[in-house]
Protein: Glycogen synthase
Organism: Paenirhodobacter enshiensis
Amino acid sequence: MKRVLSVASEAVPLVKTGGLADVVGALPAALAGQGWHMRVMMPAYRGVLDRVGATDVVWAAENFFGGSARLCLGSVGGMEVLALDAPHLYDRAGGPYSGAQGDYWDNAERFAALSWAAAIVARDGIEGWKPEVVHAHDWQAGLAPAFLRYWNTGVPTVMTIHNMAFQGRFGPQKAGPMRLPPEWFHREGYEFWGDVSTLKAGLMAADAITTVSPRYAEELMRGEFGLGLEGVIQARAGVVSGILNGVDGQVWDPETDPEVHPYSAAKPQGKAKNRKALLAEFGLNAEVSGPLLVMVTRMTPQKGIDLLPQAVESFVAAGGALAVLGSGDSWAEAAMRDLALRYPGRVAVRIGYDEGLSHRMFAGGDAVLVPSRFEPCGLTQLYGLRYGCVPVVSAVGGLADTVVGASPATQALGAETGVVFSPVDGLGLTQALRRLVALHADAPRWKAMVRRGMRMDWGWERSAVAYAALYEGLIA
């Protein structure tokens, strides 16, 4: 099998703060079916070595960004992991990027170290294993392609943007501690408006750039989405492509999900049981006649959480109910609590995150709301389709790529799977929820739309084929 090294700051089932971890964790198994042996390199945060049983030390260094380090090979759930064990950088009580006092002061060095180790492995190999391609994910791994380019190794690299909003930007004084060569501090290198940007470094150095949906690849060439790096994407447009994320069909399957009453597109009866149970779990009125809308989200402006107050009143008046699960900005959490107080029995909110509850929400909800201002791919709408929970989404990024909006044309074609709205503002969301209520009231059309969404295949096979073809092209 051909070999590829995936470099990332997190991966399911070890560490997860967002969709990045889902992608990194799913790709090794998906690519194995395409003839590629993928190993994942990530930091050995506290507890990771125990989880992967990493006792085989394949590389070590004494003077490694302020302390000693070793690279340990282990596995979890069939995924081979190269865990970078550097306690002075990663053995901390907080999350992967921040602790109780905010972002770690040395994040620049922590993730430069990850990229440096990946570049060493790609250049020299370890114990007979040498990757033919390096695949770096987001800013935390952006310097891996850069180091390989600066060292003139010839190892082909892929840089994937999961979210352009996070760019790995640090002051110029960090360039030395990050082991960045000063001669590359210019606009064609890692310099970004006088600072260091590890994401820009990767984008300038990589042989191929991918995003997690085709539409997001196009959007990044515009200022409102490119966030200062749109010129880089425009300049490198010839090597930019979008490959949609997938979902794990074993984890997300309403027929076998242990959290829910089982059902399927062919036998949908269990859906009603899940709806009744979810209404009770959230303390919502059992006699809700309109659609039960669910939202599982980070509570930030990106996710459009601030649009809800304007739209909820007319939705509730039309018979709808809303259940929200998530956490984020304090003002957003307060706004959601206020909605629940204003509409008791019709709006309920749980602050925090609960994986099991999220499954029950998709199973019990009639529709799932994703009103993001930008969304590189999004997995929530895919979970909704899989569970017969009709997506209501904004027309951006992967949301627009995966949901076919209800309209006279799509109805005539028998293609509609959800509600898609634009522009992304309070009025647009209000109008989208009105359409949702009308669709829900049209029982034959609604049932056909639910069944159609459940039968769509959003597994990883299609994406794995695309990544494999990309790798093949780079080494050809």
Observations:
- The chain has a mean pLDDT of 96.
- The first strand starts at residue 2 and ends at 7.
